[in-house]
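Homework-ish question, so no full write-ups if that breaks the rules, but can someone show me the predicted structure for this set?
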Amino acid sequence: ETGVTQSPTHLIKTRGQQVTLRCSSQSGHNTVSWYQQALGQGPQFIFQYYREEENGRGNFPPRFSGLQFPNYSSELNVNALELDDSALYLCASSSPGTGLINEQFFGPGTRLTVL
Amino acid sequence: TQLLEQSPQFLSIQEGENLTVYCNSSSVFSSLQWYRQEPGEGPVLLVTVVTGGEVKKLKRLTFQFGDARKDSSLHITAAQPGDTGLYLCAVINQAGTALIFGKGTTLSVSS
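A: Not a homework solution, just the prediction itself:
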């Protein structure tokens, strides 16, 4: 069984640029959630995708957007990058259900640095 | 205001010592989870507690859910360097779509 994978591992961007982060969910998982973890903080929920539709969103501006594909993989897009967007971005997948969380399995994250 | 308050924020101990970390809130929860996150990795679920007063053991780790289901503790007996990491408590949001995490306790165990 393949776990959650994320790419790239690290990324450096400059303020104002756009970035796309990618996530492959664990085999058989149809729900993907994205979290932002700033240094010294716990992860904060950005949004969740279930069956290719956004199924919940945290307190993040619209410049944070996402996609889920038919194979349940997902992308997180951030436009107009700001310095405060520098963080570890975590993807988590959940076992089949109605979009409700059972147990979430996290990937290793993408470390984004905005200069 | 943080929904889940974790303490202490940092803990540095010697191998073999015992320790307890706390997760407190003024809200009542139907369940609470503990995760451990190692550098360069995502959080890994350690345990879910669901019943007030429940105690769960995972080898040298003992988890307790408060009687009122507002708080939880994690006790580690005879800590080892492999226990080093960030310990996070989390609860599920009302919609059931996301985890809400505390800020975590960073534990460093030196040999």
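Now go work out the reasoning yourself. Hint: The interface with chain A takes residues 4, 40-45, 48, 88, 90, 92-93, 95-104 of chain B (CB under 8 Å).
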